[in-house]
Amino acid sequence: MTYKPQAKYLKDYQPPSHQVEHIDLTFDLSPQKTVVTAKYQLEANNQSRSVELDGVDLKLTSLKVNGLPHTKYEVIDSKLIIDNIPSKFELEVETEIAPELNTSLEGLYLSDGAYCTQCEAEGFRKITYFFDRPDVLATYTVTVIGDNSFPYLLSNGNKVEEGKLENGKHYVKWQDPFKKPSYLFALVAGEFDLLEDTFKTCSGRDVKLQIFVDKGNLSKAPHAMESLKKSMKWDEERFNLEYDLDIYMIVAVDFFNMGAMENKGLNVFNSACVLANQETATDRDYHVIESIVGHEYFHNWTGNRVTCRDWFQLSLKEGLTVFRDQEFSSDLGSRALNRIDAVNAMRTHQFAEDAGPMAHPIRPEKVIEMNNFYTVTVYNKGAEVIRMMHTLLGELGFQNGMKLYFERHDGQAVTCDDFVNSMADATGTDLTQFKLWYSQFGTPKLKVRTQYNKTQGEYQIEIEQVHAAQDSVQVPLHIPVAIELLDNQGVRINLEHPEVRQGRVIELKAATQTFTFEGVSEEPTLVLLEDFSAPCLLEYDYTVAQLCHIAMFASSDYARWEALQQLYTQQIREYVKGQEVDFVLSKELSAVLLSLFANKPKDLAILAEYITIPNFDTLSAGYEQVPVEALCNAIDELENQIAHVLKDVLTQFYRGTQESGSLSAGDVAIRALKNRSLYYLALTDADVSTSLSMQASSTNMTNKLGALRSAVNANHSLQNELMEHFDKQWNHDLLVMDKWFALQAANKVDSCIDNILSLYEHPCFDKSNPNRVRALVGTFARSNPKQFHREDGAGYKLLADLICELNQLNPQNASRIITPLLSFKRFDEKRQGLMKAQLDRLSSIENLSDDLFEKIDKALN
Ligand code: TRP
Ligand code: ZN
User: Fold this and answer.
1) pLDDT digit string (tens) for 61-99?
2) CA separation, residue 185 to residues 28, 132, 248, 831 (Å)
3) Which ligand neighbours the alpha carbon of 263 most closely?
4) Ligand 1 lining (C-beta closer than 6 Å)
5) Which domains can be identified in the chain, with CATH numbers?
6) Overall pTM > 0.85
């Protein structure tokens, strides 16, 4: 790599040189030549007679200072430097851009003929020259001029004017009264179907709600609308936060790099995160849509009203907003299921990121391309850090902290420290040590030892924090560890101890700490890190009997699930260790599983989670060098064993339980457990052909897809027929076809790679669409370890070939799918060589994007 892009450092932060109160934008839209006029007053914060503005790929056609043409300027790389200016002046710049040629899906681009924008993080500079940084806050007026064939011309805030123009054009003028940074700017123009509703806020104001979808998709918008109304109500009730504009718009587009974007008053969504009906969307999709609609809505306060000072502070808005959307889902649905979901995301993706070359603290200190830092660390670990504060301060303390945060910082661009200070000051808590979570990367490991002294009735827990060796060791951390002690009958022992908060949380602050409990009359069973109270790994010598005891008796569904996960992990490890020995599921575990079915929990969806084993990535965390084949075999073998042990009870449940196809929690849970059952039964000698065919012809997508997944996973003789039929039935609906692409990408059979290559030619596939790429190639690299890590290197080559093509076309998307290649150091020598060869090859391609450069450079050097 010859070219070295510049990194930016948190420590180098400088406040902006100028302030801008207001910006006036005019867009004259045209696919090849959109003319953007920006007019704004700049006021210097210092003596400077010059100013530097951000701008990328812009054609500058006019520049005026105080209304007069100005020639003292220079365009260097991505900066416009204007000299000879007074300390306060009005700038007017006119630039031209070509949305039609913009395949990066950043800035102003076309999605299936509709204009739309994506400005976060630094995309506004692809639209006009401005201070494209989050700490320059201005009010915006935006005039959008477009052809009459684009009936909707949208931007942030309230519509203040509209009218007809000559040449078959019209215009609409928008005004956003709230100051915002440029990354929250949005513009959309196109022809849509529109779903409308209203929401009455707690203070009695009517807010107009609008969801814009592609023509013909109106029947798939109601779920998002319901989700939006639920979000607005929930934020009033739980956080006392009311919406602030008179209108809230959501636009669904097919070409989008991420899930959705919280632009003020005008959210832009990936259509996959909006559109749903029972025939096309699974129960999981319904859930995800609700949580993403919530997430973007919650940003209105945590992100928009109070925003980030600089991009290193991204977790200020993302960690907090993920925490809020998780709480929203938990309050509306099952808390345990949502917790299991969040923990799985951490263990599957975040622990791996923290152990790989892209490891960074939730507040990164060095960034080349900001788009690379919209990560599971910033988002999900960020949310866990917020959750730990919630655990330490309690709901009341946390809400007092939120209240103070808004009192102090509404309308400002602030730092993660400002947030923690509000929490500390509102509650009188010292969070100085806790702040280390923001600067320390890596997953802490808690080594636990216990001792019981019968004569004294004393139970001792010793916990040691272990942190991966690193440059700037800032340990120990402040860690809340929730525990539960169970007696031999499985009854919870009351914890009386001066250092226990809320009857269950002990606080670690030292590298090693001992907690002694008195008056314990028999040796208890210890439940550790209950509810995943801290994002840590745990090392404690549990016996099978202890874990079974927890799985049977712990007072929370989460703790039972966790105990089962550990039992499965132990079994897998044994199998990996002694592959030649015949593998049998332990009697104790079999008995626990059977008894779980005999005394089913109220929520059957929890039971489905109880019998789901940890995935490849989660299990990999337990190995310094990942034993690919052995681990894949062990996973298959454990599933076979579970299937055989549970065959009768699963058959009985599958045959004996009906659901009505509704979206009620009860029906959703039945479908979850029935699909899990079918998945396992397909692995046994039971004849599942009829069940597979029946479910596959269902008009409910959850059932339909459940059948296909079971057939594909078990390599059932019906799979081809079912897959072909699905293609014929759904090739008119690309979002549905993504499920079909993903199923084939996850297929463990050796023909998988050839199949993927031929699917590139499928009429529905399109490399320029991130959803298609993620469904087919993303799923392959992330969720098909057996084929991705093939010993002939064909899996690595497939991924690298596609990344080469995407490097120029869509750098963000290319950079997102490269992740599985980066952690080559975790594999055996042969695989390391093959993976590294692909990274070397990628590192030398011409015009390597900054996005890819940053990741490849970190991995290789
Ligand atoms: N802020 C968005 C969210 O979390 C994330 C996002 C959407 C984004 N589109 C993006 C981030 C493009 C970077 C680039 O809701
Ligand atoms: Zn977000």
Assistant:
1) 999 999 999 999 999 999 999 999 999 999 999 999 999
2) 16, 11, 14, 45
3) 1
4) 118, 120-121, 257-258, 260-262, 295-296, 318, 371, 374
5) 1-189 (2.60.40.1730), 445-536 (2.60.40.1840), 731-861 (1.25.50.10)
6) yes
